[in-house]
TrEMBL record:
InterPro entries: Mannose-1P_guanyltransferase, NTP_transferase_dom, Nucleotide-diphossugar_trans. Pfam families: NTP_transferase (PF00483). Keywords: Nucleotidyltransferase, Transferase. GO terms for molecular function: nucleotidyltransferase activity. This is Mannose-1-phosphate guanylyltransferase. PANTHER family: SUGAR-1-PHOSPHATE GUANYL TRANSFERASE.
Amino acid sequence: MAVGILLVGGLGTRLKPLTNESPKPMLPVAGLPVTEHQILAAKRAGIHTLVLATSYLAEVFTPYFGDGSKWGINIRYAVEKQPLGTGGAIRNAAQLLEGDEPIVIFNGDVLSRHSIADQIAFHQEKKADVTLHLIEVDDARAFGCVPTDSEGRVTAFLEKMENPVTKFINAGCYVFSPDVIKEIPLGSVVSVERETFPALIAQNRPVFGYKQAAYWLDVGTPAALFQGSRDLVAAPFLAMAGSTIGNDTQITGGTAIGANTTIASGCRIDDCIIGDNVVIESDVKLSQCFIAEGTHVNRGTEKARTYLSNSSDLPISL
């Protein structure tokens, strides 16, 4: 068994304008918020308690997730008054966890299908202080790379470089032993990537890389969010419970439609993300649009690569 911390306090600057009215972890992917996909993954891995480390628009999370009983998991909330960085956020949230179980850290804008349960087992087998999920990419220049030795022990935690020494990169899911988190100063701004991990490696502490080839995507940009939604839909479209679609409406391109949304007749909708409780009138044509929750789209509207809400009509760069 294990517990977890989900880092959902980021501003989502790269995702604007989609994050103008919603924190990035609550943006829908294949009909569910990114955070809900991560909670479901945590539950599958045997994690029984999960702390959401929030900051920006923190008040959005509690009404949706509550105490977690809907998902069969105990959810708690740690709110940062000021952003503390990844390490500071982890240390702050860990105060709400008890016991000596491994603590799994989830990055709030990553979709991954790797086996978290196997990563936890690897961590325990190696008696590691920290175990990082590593993935291999074709071109590691855009990422920090993480070389390991023959036993899987991390030998360096390197920033972006023109000639990476390995194709394995940090995939943003960590398993910590609780005592290591207690070493992070409470209330301080700390980056685990720039401070904690390099310091542990310099001290020759047992930091390991868990390598598994599995689906992984950082959904930190509009283009990546759309890709992640299409990947999970894997069909012409997906409509959540309570949604209705009118006659002679064609929906294609892996479009995701939220719950209790109404789409009238004669519409043509391709490669869109549509939130909950949206009303789309007849003869609307939308392509690569993000329609925010509760939006009303008037009859005959034609838009492409646009963020639509009841208060905004802004271009999306995809």
